[in-house]
Amino acid sequence: MSTDTFTANTMRPPLHPDDSLVGQQGPDVSVLVRPRSETASPDVWQLFSDQLIQSVQGLGFRQPDVLIKESQPPPPSGRTPVVIAPGIMVRAEEYEERYGGIDLDGLKRRMTPAVFNAFVRHVGVIPGRPDLDVSRIVEIPE
Amino acid sequence: MNYTDWQAGTAVASPVYVDANVLVAITVTKHRLYTNGVQLVGELLASQPRILISLMTVQESLWALARLSYYDLAPQRPGALFNRSIYDRWCGRIFASHGPRMAAISSMLHSWSQAGITVEVVPKTEEDFLSLCNVTPRYMRDYKLTPNDAAHLAIACAHARTFVTADSDFEQVARQSTSENLVIVHLAP
Questions:
Q1: Are A101 and A63 within one domain?
Q2: Local confidence pLDDT in tens for the 142 residues of chain A
């Protein structure tokens, strides 16, 4: 994942043909930026895209809207912190992964604050894989 | 002996012997049993039960965490082999990359205890231990269980009113057993 800051003066050529596309037709310059892999942080690519577009606009080129919309990654919806219990705060996306589908409010009403805190603190701390057989993986070989 | 698939609202009588596979399932977010497991354990903790754990539970949990770490470090097909020889080769990398996760289960049990949940280790006494040693091979023979599963069952029968497990092998055991004292609650997706 790249963390470089891009400006008009320091912009480097793309590291890979698929990383970005810059085209010009008359006075219009279009910029298409996309991450090379799904694991790259959308924030970095958003930053990269914004910086590149600003740099090109700063040089006097007008940006058509359509291509920019196509190139923008999804909005960073999972960044909003959620407080689960005193001292336990997770991002919205982590909340969904760890506590989605669980009746946390119902359990919270039935637990003491200390038990609720101990409960939510430890569940789902390992991402793991969906194809695991927990009955098998606990088996210690002879 | 009764056997039931857990669903929300299922009453779980205390004391409760908890199998390692349940403890592992509630720490692994992407696991297919995760949501049901967390809800089950949440309802269990809300009832302020006596939770029973054995050293085998901890050992099996640690083995599972080591195995999970190996799968993360060397992506494998589902159910890929993980044995002593592989562990010997990967141990250093497992603890270097995932050392903190190896404490996940013990840390969770410690927190429950600190919060007021009774977490007891069984067997407690020498007499108790020797009694379980006698019963375990009988369960191996009668129910065709592995030594560990037979020992888990022996502990549960001797100390618990409920045995919570994700292992469906115990369904057959419950059908054959005439014991009335234990309820096996099966964690299913």
A1: no
A2: 433 333 333 233 333 434 444 444 455 544 444 444 444 444 554 554 455 445 545 554 444 343 333 334 444 455 678 899 998 999 998 999 999 999 999 999 999 999 999 999 999 999 877 666 666 666 766 5
pTM higher than 0.80, yes or no? no
Select the residue of B24, B78, B116 nearest A138 (Cβ to Cβ). Answer: B24
Query: Rounded to a whole number, what is the distance in Å from the CA of A65 to chain B's nearest CA?
Result: 38
Domain that holds residue A87: 77-124
The span from the CA of A110 to the CA of A72, in Å, is 44
What domains does chain B contain, in order, with CATH numbers?
2-61+101-186 (3.40.50.1010)
Is this complex scored with an ipTM above 0.90? yes
Are B21 and B36 in contact by the 8 Å Cβ rule? The answer is no
Q: Which two tokens stand for residue A137?
A: 């993986």
Residue B39 CB contacts under 8 Å (≥ 6 apart), including other chains: A102, A103, A107, B8
Determine the residue of chain A that is closest to B62 in CA distance.
A138
